[in-house]
């Protein structure tokens, strides 16, 4: 998509195009490989934005964002409040279009294919590009096991061994050992940090290629934060992760690459600089990046 495009509110769950296909390619995530029937392709994918602009109504909030988010690596989006990080993240899995006044320009390529191409359904994209939110949002009355399987059910995917998928997803999210004896307990009975890892397990259960995380630790205590960061480091080798964080230490701990967003007064947000995390923090090219990562503003 190269021109500004008005977007309609997204359709409800609109089924799966590839219900009859079977995908068993890609690396095994653990010793017990589980085959999803009708699932999206397994394995990480490269995500790339080209010249992305975003509007709410006639207000341009993001301008010309071109960013490569490499497969099997963690990219952190950093920058002061209001510079468009969450908007950009939501563009990456077509959630931006859930806002009726929203529009955008540019392209978002998932392994080279434009996720906004004609005929590509938002639901299909969101299966491949999952999202974990700021506040853990498990279904509180639903069992831990059913929470993990919830995304699968919603998407109409089938799995030939649900117990194995639950174990594998919880294992990948770093929660299995803590909950394996109480899989039928309600998700709402877990601590905040455990709930967030349950949400990560739920996202991983549909085998996304990319996992987007919007300040996933901001509602958590320091211990839970470190545990979720450990989980991010572990899954970062299997899926592509893009994380929005205000916590500079966290960005340094979890990410391989960083993109610094900034919006000057009455201007849209732009990427000022991006590159390897080490460089962004140790010797950035732009003085504004230096000032931001050293806490001088924002
Ligand atoms: N639904 C919306 N309707 C209108 N304007 C919006 C909407 N969502 C965000 N905006 C505006 O878009 C701009 C970018 O917001 P966004 O939430 O993407 O920034 P951010 O960098 O993620 O901020 P924060 O770090 O505070 O979460 C802001 O000026 C915000 O007010």
From TrEMBL:
The keyword Nucleotide-binding applies. Keywords: ATP-binding, Nucleotide-binding, Translocase, Transport. Pfam families: ABC_tran. This is Phosphate ABC transporter ATP-binding protein. Signal peptide: none annotated. Residues 47-293 form the ABC transporter domain. One of its GO terms (molecular function) is ATP binding.
